[in-house]
Every structure is written in C-alpha cells, then in structure tokens.
Structure prediction request, 44 residues.
Amino acid sequence: MEVKMFNLKAESQRLKEEVADHAKVLAELDTTRAKIEQLNKVDI
Prediction:
C-alpha cells in the first residue's frame, strides 16, 4: 500500500511539472504571436 501511495505521489508531482511546462509554453506562444502581429503591422 505504501509503495502505491509513493508511486501516486510521484506521478502527481510529475503531472504538476508537466502542467507548469505547458503553461510556460503557452505563454511563450502568446508572446510570439503578439510579436508576429506587430511585425505584420510594420510590413503593411
């Protein structure tokens, strides 16, 4: 039972880190989209 609890806690931590990584990537994507929009406005 303790091993299962340990494994679940480890998986939970891994998933939390994965969600944090996804949030960081989404923020970078939004920033990049904004930069592209600005560059497109300058070119027009």
About this structure: The mean pLDDT is 95. The chain is about 95% helix and 0% strand.
